[in-house]
TrEMBL record:
This is UBP-type domain-containing protein. InterPro entries: Cation/H_exchanger_TM, Na+/solute_symporter_sf, NAD(P)-bd_dom_sf, RCK_N, Znf_RING/FYVE/PHD, Znf_UBP. It comes from the Bacteria. Keywords: Membrane, Transmembrane, Transmembrane helix, Transport. SUPFAM superfamilies: NAD(P)-binding Rossmann-fold domains (SSF51735), RING/U-box (SSF57850). Residues 685-709 have a biased composition (Basic and acidic residues). GO terms for cellular component: membrane. Residues 588-689 form the UBP-type domain. GO terms for biological process: potassium ion transport; proton transmembrane transport. GO terms for molecular function: antiporter activity; zinc ion binding. Its main location: membrane.
Length: 709
């Protein structure tokens, strides 16, 4: 097959596909450099390479299919970000605001065109077309400007949702407006009610399945820990739900949005969002390019006065109707006008509705043969102008003043309900032994921790321990956003290979100024590894071969200067947590001698007692990990509990004047070393050269790298 392909030249689809992607990348790049939103660049790229201009892409069928997938994936991700809870909180604005906007726009358009001599049926049909705004473009603009959670953003979304629902009714009514009165089209009062009832039933079934089927299904797939299978399952859910809703007459866009809402109810919403985003970006770019390809610049030049008039007509009617709808909801004038300007364009689904109307003798604007091309030109021009109209809307909102408390306050969340918007917390990537020990220490000191992990069992355990969890791959920016990485003080990567840690750090550094602490699973002693981590933005590296879990916590706490340190009770023994302890156990004294390694005390007193506010009698130091606990005479007996839980039987007394150690397993008292643990303590120094100005090398005491949690 490969030889045959080489002999016959490149496959037919390759040249137009390469031209499409290259044009989108180049013009999108230029748009961003000129501080213009990429959507405008993608639309212009479509205009340039379209069949009416350079003709680089002539096989539009494949492009249209990819564009449809782009719309589905875009609305799917929006549904994940929004969630059912937030949707229910704006239901009044969907029904009242959206209903008024569609009705007023359709009615005003019909009246204005009737004054110009256009038949009322063509006028109402045009009103339906003009009433629809571009869900894809509006939500993309809101997302890029960070306005999705504002009053204007939520009101816009409410109106867009109603418009998508109204498409169902419009598709059924348009045949009744045609010359044939809907004959043979299955339309009519009974058909209308049947179709609406079927659509409502399908939507209800989808939402019920969201609560009962989707969470356990995603849980089962996630337990495989296979990104390939997980991604395929997510795409299947998205496309499958859109297909089922389309069978009931609901637009595929609304079906995809419902699929996103379904997934948003799952604990794995952030994981889904992170996996689907690369596909969404690619296919949604194709969608915007495909819309631009519909424009014929020759037609625009020849009919410029007509098109300018149509653009002004559409903007005037839609801005007026939408602003009235906003004011009816008791919105401030600035918010109502800002929303109206944002929704002033014509939506992509108007093309679909225009196709239905053409089959029944209806024409946009009453222009007969030129109606469809006039609609395309007006739509594309308004889409290109949308970022400018949106900016004008923000300016109007600011100048006219914003009265708050108009919409119910909704906590701003990322995909899956993560703590986006929080500040001062610590993000921990993964949930292994080191992450568990660190999170326990931080929680005891009142530092909030957000955990990101792909492991369902680890996520459940972290949640059971009281931590907030974002399920997903920490190399994916949406997952980090859901964890609130922008406002985090420290990001800790405690149990990844150096190359994986570097990838996570690079993504973090691209969006956050948080300090990044890495404890890789492999020793990072070689200079090349340190250079790679430093280049990725890592601020501190903790050597896994020569550091304890307590040292990792100490390294993180050093980045949190405002965190209070709990002080032991007056008169209690205080352990020097800056001194290295190495209790050399003779191999013939205890069969567990190999478990004794250099350690750094994890706390100045018993960790558990300090956390609970209790007192202790005497202190014991774990010679395997540096944990400090209280003796058997204390109420908590935390040293013995630690030994049993972690299989670390060797404990040394750190009471003044005591130089003995003990094995909890066989009861052996281990002889004192040549010098007492504290007399033999060494200052912890780093004899390696600092590789960069940004990387601090924390080279501390050791622990067994194969230590069991």
């Amino acid at each position: 097959m490969l030889l045959a392909t080489e002999a016959s030249g490149p496959p037919p689809f390759l040249a137009p596909t390469a031209a499409l992607v290259l044009a989108a990348a180049v013009i999108g790049y230029l748009s961003v450099r000129m501080r213009v939103v990429p959507i405008v660049g993608f639309l212009l790229a479509g205009v340039v390479i379209g069949p009416a201009q350079l003709g680089l892409v002539e096989r539009q069928e494949a492009v249209e299919s990819a564009a449809e997938v782009g719309v589905i994936l875009l609305l799917f991700t929006i549904g994940i970000e929004f969630s059912l809870q937030r949707l229910l909180q704006i239901k009044r604005y969907i029904l009242l605001g959206g209903g008024l906007q569609v009705a007023l726009t359709a009615g005003a358009t019909t009246g204005v065109l009737a004054l110009g001599g256009v038949d009322w049926r063509d006028g109402l049909f045009t009103g339906f077309l003009v009433a629809l705004s571009s869900t894809a473009i509006v939500l993309k603009v809101l997302g890029d400007s960070g306005e999705s959670g504002t009053v204007r953003g939520r009101l816009s979304l409410a109106i867009l949702i109603f418009q998508d629902l109204a498409v169902i009714l419009m598709v059924l009514v348009v045949p009744l407006l045609g010359d044939d009165g809907g004959e043979g089209g299955g339309a009519g009062p009974l058909g209308l009610l049947t179709a609406l009832g079927t659509a409502a039933a399908v939507i209800a079934v989808v939402l019920v399945l969201a609560r009962r089927v989707m969470p356990p299904l995603l849980e089962r797939v996630a337990r495989l820990c296979s990104p390939e299978v997980f991604l395929l399952a997510v795409v299947a859910i998205c496309l499958g739900t859109a297909y089922l809703t389309a069978l009931a007459g609901v637009s595929v866009a609304l079906g995809a949005f419902l699929a996103g809402l379904v997934v948003s109810e799952s604990r794995h919403a952030s994981h889904v969002f992170g996996e689907i985003m690369p596909l969404q970006i690619l296919f949604s770019a194709v969608f915007f390019v495909s819309v631009g390809m519909l424009l014929d610049l020759g037609y625009v030049v020849e009919n410029l006065p007509l098109l300018a008039g149509l653009v002004l007509l559409v903007v005037a009617v839609k801005v007026t109707a939408t602003a009235v709808a906003g004011l009816a909801l008791r919105k401030p004038v600035g918010t109502a006008l800002g929303t109206a300007l944002l929704l002033a364009q014509v939506g992509e689904f108007s093309f679909v509705l225009d196709t239905v109307g053409a089959e029944h003798g209806l024409s946009p604007f009453g222009l007969t043969e030129d109606g469809s091309q006039a609609l395309v030109a007006t739509t594309v021009l308004l889409m290109v102008l949308t970022p400018l109209l949106s900016a004008a809307g923000r300016l109007a909102d600011a100048r006219l003043g914003r009265r708050r408390a108009v919409l119910p306050a909704v906590p701003q969340q990322g995909a899956g309900g993560g703590p986006e918007g929080r500040t001062g917390h610590v993000v921990v990537s993964g949930w292994g032994a080191a992450a568990r020990a660190l999170a326990l220490d931080l929680r005891g000191r009142g530092v909030p921790v957000v955990v990101t992990t792909l492991n369902p069992d680890g996520a459940a355990e972290a949640e059971a321990d009281g931590h907030e969890v974002v399920r997903g791959d920490a190399t994916k920016l949406p997952v980090l956003h859901a964890a609130g990485v922008q406002g985090a003080s420290v990001v800790v990567i405690p149990e990844d290979r150096p190359e994986e840690a570097a990838r996570i750090a690079a993504v973090v550094r691209g969006t956050s100024a948080a300090r990044i602490v890495v404890r890789p699973t492999e020793a990072g002693a070689d200079p090349a590894t340190l250079d790679d981590l430093a280049a990725a933005g890592v601020d501190k590296v903790v050597d896994p071969d020569r550091s304890s879990h307590g040292m990792l916590a100490k390294s993180v706490l050093a980045e949190l200067p405002g965190v209070p340190t709990t002080v032991p009770p007056a008169g209690a023994t205080r352990v020097d947590t800056t001194r290295l302890v190495h209790y050399a156990v003779p191999s013939d004294a205890c069969p567990h001698a190999a478990l004794s390694v250099p350690v750094l005390p994890s706390a100045m007193g018993c960790e558990e007692c300090l956390r609970d506010g209790d007192t202790w009698v005497h202190l014991r130091l774990c010679l395997s990990c540096g944990h400090v606990g209280c003796c058997d005479s204390s109420p908590g007996r935390h040293a013995r509990a630690h030994a049993g839980e972690h299989e670390h039987p060797l404990m040394a007394s750190v009471e003044p004047g005591e130089t003995w150690a003990h094995c909890f397993y066989d009861g052996t008292t281990i002889p004192a070393p040549a010098r007492s643990p504290w007399d033999a303590a060494l200052d912890v120094t780093d004899d390696r050269t600092d590789r960069t100005d940004r990387t601090d090398r924390t080279d501390r005491a050791g622990e067994r790298t194969e230590e069991r949690a």
